[in-house]
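Reminder to self: tokens first, then the designed residues, so the page reads top to bottom the way the pipeline ran.
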């Protein structure tokens, strides 16, 4: 096998069937009708006059395609009540030469994303977007979330700002050493919509979101990778007209909203209106209004990074 990543990427693009990745994940491709679909096991696609077989857990690689990988949590997965902003990017005509690949798992902290780094590297991406930290903040502020995620995600230690910084730094360094991709890290979207709240829970969330976003920016500077100012862009709009405070965390409303979307087939924006949120569906996950802010920022990165 070629000794370097660039050679591996070119070899993978020159060979059909496509090179097989070592782990499963979702591949988004745009059909000739312009619809975004998830590629299933052993699906066959006719794309750019080339017959391509997609194996379970493989990367679709064809000539002229720029691979963009997204690493994160539910905001990257874009399922349930979380608006699929990556799907929005895929539907844009200007992105027809991009192949967007999601590596998002609900509830993941930076530590969990770090454990899945090999999945991203295996796909030989050209650009990588890392967006983690929201669950780290929730685990720090909410005892209920901390206990739940400690068990669910098998965390080896309690969340702390220092541990987040360590994990994020390792993620970025691992991607830089394992790929030749252009890497970007995103600051965190607000949780709740009241930046001036005096409620203790919302106030703590605001402080930690701002603190962790500053950490992300510093890691980007130190590691010389791109920084996407999601927090700054969203908070500027929220400050103009503050909304609801996120005053406590309860699991039942999240399950209820997931039921509304997945079973009752309500759109995330419909759920947002029912819940009284402007940028979120439930105070944590973004609706289309919040998600479009993220999509436009990421569009700048994938378009302008060379």
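Designed residues (306 positions):
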């Amino acid at each position: 096998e070629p000794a370097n990543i660039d050679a591996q990427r070119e070899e993978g693009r020159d060979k059909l069937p496509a090179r097989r990745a070592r782990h499963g994940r979702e591949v988004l491709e745009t059909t000739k009708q312009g619809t975004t679909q998830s590629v299933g096991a052993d699906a066959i696609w006719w794309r750019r006059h080339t017959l391509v077989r997609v194996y379970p857990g493989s990367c679709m690689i064809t000539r002229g395609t720029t691979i963009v990988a997204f690493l994160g949590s539910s905001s990257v997965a874009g399922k349930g009540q979380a608006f699929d902003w990556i799907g929005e990017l895929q539907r844009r005509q200007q992105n027809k030469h991009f192949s967007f690949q999601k590596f998002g798992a609900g509830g993941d902290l930076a530590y969990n994303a770090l454990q899945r780094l090999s999945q991203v590297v295996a796909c030989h991406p050209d650009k990588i977007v890392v967006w983690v930290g929201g669950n780290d903040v929730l685990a720090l502020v909410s005892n209920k979330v901390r206990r739940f995620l400690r068990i669910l995600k098998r965390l080896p230690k309690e969340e702390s700002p220092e541990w987040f910084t360590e994990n994020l730094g390792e993620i970025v360094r691992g991607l830089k050493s394992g790929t030749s991709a252009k890497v970007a890290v995103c600051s965190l979207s607000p949780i709740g919509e009241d930046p001036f709240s005096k409620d203790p829970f919302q106030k703590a969330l605001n402080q930690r979101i701002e603190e962790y976003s500053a950490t992300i920016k510093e890691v980007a500077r130190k590691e010389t990778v791109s920084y996407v100012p999601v927090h700054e862009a969203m908070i500027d709009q929220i400050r103009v007209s503050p909304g609801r405070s996120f005053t406590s965390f309860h699991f039942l409303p999240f399950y209820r909203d997931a039921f509304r979307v997945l079973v009752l087939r309500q759109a995330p924006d419909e759920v947002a209106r029912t819940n009284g949120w402007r940028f979120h569906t439930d105070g944590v996950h973004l609706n289309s209004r919040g998600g479009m802010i993220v999509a436009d920022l990421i569009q700048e990165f994938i378009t302008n990074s060379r």
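The first strand starts at residue 26 and ends at 30.
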